Every structure is written in C-alpha cells, then in structure tokens.
Please model this.
Amino acid sequence: MDKKAAMVKHKAIENQGQKPAGGPERSGGPPGKGAVVMAINSKLAQAPDPQVLQGPKRRRLTVEYKLRILKEAEACTEPGEIGELLRREGLYSSQLTEWRKLRDQAMLGCGKRGRKPNPQARRIAELERQIKKLRQRLEQAELIISVQKKVSEILKSQEKDDQGDEDK
Model:
C-alpha cells in the first residue's frame, strides 16, 4: 500500500468515532441541509488528492560508482553475496553483465545515450548541398539560354526589317 493510501485509511479510522462538525445531531425528521453538507464534506475529506505527483526520477549512475560495484562484485566469493550486493544497491544482474562488457572493451564511460548517428549522414548532407548548388546553376543556365534565344530572334527580325527596307 502506498503512502497516500495509508494516510487516507488512517484518517478514515480516526474519523469513525467522532461526530461530524457543524452542530448537534438532529433527532427525528428528515435530514436537513446541514447533514447533506456534512456528508459531502466527509466524502471530500476521504477523496484522494487530485494533484498529480511527479514520477520517480531515473538514476544516473556514474562511472566511478559502476567501477566500485564491479570491484565489490568481483570480491564476492560466497554463494549469494552478489545477490545481496545487487539487492542492497537496487541493481539487476544484467546491469553487472553489461558493465563488465563495457569495462573489458574500455568503453564504460564512453557510451552516449540515445539514437546513434547515421554513419553516412555527413556524406548525405554534403551530396544534398551539392545537388542544391547544381540545381541553382542549372536554373541560371536555362535563364541565360532563354535570354540568348530571345536576343537571337530580335536580331533576326531586325535583319529581315533591314533587308525589307533595302528592297523598297
């Protein structure tokens, strides 16, 4: 049973033998407005706190701590000593196994949490930048070609006009 539930149960046990606050008990007749209010108040007093409590924080185990635990585990010679160590420290045997592997690979303090970066990400980003640059150059070249075509057409039409004027 968690702490909050234990407190609610304790309050309920305390309140069992007491008279509700708000004046003397009424005898006979239907319950009045005061009795309804007292009943509602007593239910509210027993209701759990609606505030959301912060969940447990994740432990951050330092490299020094891990090395100390590994040293203690290796010093254990009697059956059950490692289990006792793990229970005392709140650890799992799989953690010890993982820490041993990392220590043997000399990677115990090197591991970064989270998703590993794609080894080709740098190359992909470089190629994307290159593609963008080439597309800009292509657009510029197409613009220049279109301007040259228009200039060529204008010059041809002027030549025809000049030849037509000479014929008259």
DSSP finds six helices and no strands in the chain. The mean pLDDT is 79.
